[in-house]
Amino acid sequence: MIPIISEPRQILLAGMSFYGDPFDIHAGWDEENRIGELWNRWMRFLYHNPFCQNLAAEMPGFYEVHLYDEDTAEKGLFEVFVGIAIMESVLHKIPENLCLKNLPESKYAIFTLQGMDIKSDWENTIQLSLLESGLQRNDSYNFQYYDERFKGIQHIESSILDVYIPIKNLQ
After folding, report:
1. The whole model's pTM is what?
2. If we measure between CA atoms, which residue out of 71, 155, 89 comes closest to residue 118?
3. Which of 78, 109, 146, 161 has an alpha carbon within 20 to 30 A of 36's alpha carbon?
4. How far apart are CA 38 and CA 48, in angstroms?
5. What is the pLDDT of residue 14?
6. In this structure, what CATH number is given to the domain that contains residue 152?
7. pLDDT at 123
8. 37: phi then psi, degrees, rounded to nearest 5
């Protein structure tokens, strides 16, 4: 798996989050775990607040950000955030029940996952690919970008998504 290297500018996101063990009630890539519940809550919010979709920046897809801290390795706890990219000029229009995330300008390795690779243990595959490319993670988060190529969990075989990993060169 060979990544594409990109250096997008800062990404400002508006959405919803969950902190804990996202697989405590159900493991796997489906709507039965905490991540699936979060996506369902987010999509219900957008359905009832369609004006929020008009706040999206030039990348009209959805983001799923995984933020890791000291509890991740020890207890399996981390934050999952789902949302849309927005421009700073619309911050005053963001409802108070949404969270904001600011992903700093960074160098990213972008991995494109297709079909059943999406449900695989791609984290380990990506880590090996980074090492083979002379790269390493540069931060405690990564994100998945879902656009029109992602057809949904029910159509995973024909779906595509991109995984962005902040990176730096090995010293």
Report:
1. 0.89
2. 155
3. 109
4. 15
5. 94
6. 3.20.80.10
7. 84
8. -60, -40
